[in-house]
Amino acid sequence: MKLTRRLFGGAAMATALMAAGAAQAEDPMRIALVVKALGIGFFEAAAKGAEEAAQELGNVEVIYTGPTDTTAEGQIEVINALIAQQVDAIAISANDTDALVPALKKAMQRGITVISWDSGVAPEGRELHLNPSSNPLIGNMIIKLAADELPEGGKVAVLSATTTSTNQNTWIDEMNKVMDNYKGIEVVGTVYGDDLADKSYREATGLMQTYPDLDAIIAPTSVGIVAAARAVEDAGKVGQVNVTGLGLPSEMAGAIESGASKSFAIWNPIDLGYSATMLAYQLATDQAEAAPGAEIPMGRMGTLTLDENTEGAMADPFVYDASNIEDFKSIF
Amino acid sequence: MTRFLKSREAMLTGAILALLALIASRFPGFIAPGNLARVFTDTSPLLILALGQTVVILTRCIDLSVAANLALSGMVCAMLNAAWPGLPVPVILAVAVTLGAIMGMANGILVWKLQIPPIVVTLGTMTIYRGIIFLISDGAWVNAHEMSAAFTGFPRASLLGLPVLAWMGILATAGVALMIARTPLGRAFYAVGGNPHAAVYTGLSVGRTQFWAFTLSGALAGLTGYLWVARYAVAYVDIAAGFELEVVAACVIGGISIAGGAGTILGTLLGALFLGIVKNALPVVDVSPFWQMAISGSAIIVAVTLNTRSARTKGRIILRSAEHRAPEGAAA
C-alpha cells in the first residue's frame, strides 16, 4: 500500500488508498521503536509508553528493538532487518546523526514512515524529529519549580555547569526571559560548579554562606543538583534551602528522601515513547503530513508543532517529587 | 628561630594569614572557627593526596595517577556497598587502602623494574585506571540511595567537634611526618631524591625506595577514594577529574622541590591549606568565575617563583663563602 503511494503519489490515488486501507484493516499496523541499545532503563520505560499508545490506538503492534551496544553499525543492521520485515513505521533514537541516514532513506523509499525521537537523525533521514522538550520550556520549568515552593517570594541562586556550557547558558537565558511572570522571586546570583562534584559542592556551600536567607538553589545540571543537595544536607539547611533543577530520578532519589530537594524535572521516557508511537501512527496512516508548521496530535500529550526543520518539542519537562520518585528511580 | 622565620614555611604561614585577613575584610564570616574547621575538612582529601605525592616527589618521581586511583578505589567501595549494604566500614576502608596500595605498587614496579620515566608510567596508568572504572561500572553512576547510611555517614561523623574526614587528614599528616622523620625508609626518600648516586653508594636501592613511595601514595589515594565517594555520596567515572594537578600544585606551593630531595611535610600541609582556602574563599568573596581560575593559577606561579628564588640565593651564598674560603686555605 505504502509502496504504491510512493510510486504514484498525489491526490489522484486518494480513493484507491482509502479502499486499500479498508481492505488491510485487519492486519495490525507494525511500528518499530528502535532504541540506542537494549537493556537501558530509560528506553525500557519508553517502550512501556509505546505499548500504552498501541493499546489506546488499537490494532497496532509495537516492535521494541535495538542493538546490544550503542553503535550506529548495530542500528543499521536493525534497520535493515526491519525493512526486510516490511514494518509500517520506524521511530528511532539514533546513535549517530548522519551514519544512519542511508539506511533510513532506504526504508523511506520502501514506503516505511521514519521518525526520530530523543536523539535525532539529520533531516534527510527522517520525516520528523520529536524533541523531549524545548529550551524555553526548560527555562520556564526550572524557575517554576523553585517558585512553586515559594508562594511568598524569595531569593534563589543558580548553580550551573561551566561558564561556557551551551545548554545551561541557553536555559538560564530562557529562564531570565520569563522572570517577570514570577513576582517576588529574586535571582541573587549564578555560580559555576564546572560539572565537578567537589567544586559544585563548594560553590553551593559558598552560596549559602553569602546569602544566609537563600531559599532555593536551581541547578540545571545533573552533577550540580546532586552535589548541591549534598551541600544543603551537610550545612543542616534541609527545609530552608530547596534544591531543584534538572536531574535523573536514580541520582536524586536520596535527595528527595532527605528533603533537600522537594522536586526536580527531566523528560519522562514513558511520555516520550508514547508520543513517538502516536506520531508514527499518524504519519503511517496518512492522517498527518510532516511539513514545517504542521500540527500533529499525540493523544494525551496534546499536539506537536513542527518548525522549519520538521522538529517539534513534546512537552514541559516532567516533574519528579516524593510521590513518584519510587516508581522512577529504578528506571533511569 | 630566625632560621624558621626566614624559612619557606614561615613565609607561607604569613601568606595564609594575609590571605585570611584579605578574605575576612570582604566576608567576615569566613574566619569564624566553625567555618575554618569546615574549610579544613574540605581540604582534607587534597591534603591526604598531597602527602603521598610529597613522598613521591621527594624521590624525584611524580604520580599523576592519584586522582584516577582515587576514582577507581572509590567506585569499587561504592559498588561493594551497593551490593552488600551490611559490609562494615572498617572492611571498606581496608579494601580501599589495599586496592590503592596495589595500584601504587603497579606504578612502582614499572618505575623500578622497567626503569620507565615516572611521568610516562603514571600518565599511562592514569588512563588505565579510569578505563577500568568504566569497565566495572558500565559507565553507570552509584547514587546516594544505593549507599548505606553507615557508608556515607562515616566521614561526616563528628568526633571531638571535628568530622572524621578532618581527623583522617590530621592522622595522615602526623603519620607521614613521623615516618619521614623517624624511619630509615623515610630518610631514604630524601637520600634517594637528593643524590641518587650517593644513595647507591650508601647501600640504598633507588628503585626499591621509589617503589615504596608509589605504594604509600597509592594507599593514601585509595583511602581518599572511599572518603571522597562517601562525602559526595556519588561515584562515577569522572570523579576528581584533573585533581592530580591540584595535588601537585599543593606540593609545589608547599616548597617540595620538583627536582627531589627537598621539602617538609609542614610545607605540604601549608600548601594544601593555601589552595583549600583559595578554593573555598573564591565562591564567597564574589569574584567572577572567569577570574577564579586565573587567580588560582597566579597563586601557583607566585609560589613557585618565590621557591626558585629562595633556592637560588641560598646556592649563591654557599658558593661565595666557598670562594672566600678557598684563597684563605691556599694561603695557609
How would you sum up this structure, described in words?
The complex is a heterodimer of chains A (about 325) and B (about 325). Chain A has 12 helices and 14 strands. Chain A has helices spanning about 1-10, 15-25, 40-55, 70-85, 100-110, 135-150, 165-175, 195-210, 220-235, 250-260, 270-285, 325-330, and strands at about 30-35, 60-65, 90, 115, 130, 155-160, 185-190, 215-220, 240-245, 265, 295, 305, 310-315, 320. Chain A has a 6-stranded parallel sheet with strand order 2-1-3-4-5-13, sandwiched between helices. In chain A, strands 7-6-8-9 form a 4-stranded parallel sheet, sandwiched between helices. In chain A, strands 10-14 form a two-stranded antiparallel sheet. The radius of gyration of chain A is 22 Å and the shape is elongated. Chain B is an all-alpha fold and about 325 residues long. Chain B has a single domain, classed as ABC transporter involved in vitamin B12 uptake, BtuC. Chain B is about 75% helix and about 0% strand. A two-stranded antiparallel ribbon of chain B has the order 1-2. The longest helix of chain B has about 45 residues, at about 290-330. At the A-B interface, strand 7, helix 8, helix 9 and helix 10 of A face helix 3, helix 11 and helix 13 of B. Chain B: InterPro entries: ABC_transp_permease. Chain B: Pfam families: BPD_transp_2. Chain B: It is a multi-pass membrane protein. Chain B: The complex is composed of two ATP-binding proteins (LsrA), two transmembrane proteins (LsrC and LsrD) and a solute-binding protein (LsrB).
**CATH architecture level-2 label of chain B:** Orthogonal Bundle
Please provide the count of β strands of chain B: 2
Please report the first level of CATH classification, the CATH class of chain B: Mainly Alpha
The overall pLDDT of chain A, averaged over residues, is 85
The most extensive contact between chains is: A-B, 27 and 31 residues
- Give me the Rg of chain A, rounded: 22 Å
Sheet of most strands of chain B: 2 strands, antiparallel
How many DSSP H or I helices of chain B? 14
Oligomerization status of the protein chains: heterodimer
Helix content of chain B: over 70%
Distance between the termini of chain B: 35 Å
Q: What does the average pLDDT of chain B come to?
A: 87
The CATH class of the largest domain in chain A: Alpha Beta
| Proportion of residues in extended strands of chain A | 15-25%
Structural class of chain A: alpha/beta
How many angstroms separate the termini of chain A? 39 Å
Gyration radius of chain B (Cα, Å) is 21 Å
Number of extended strands of chain A: 14
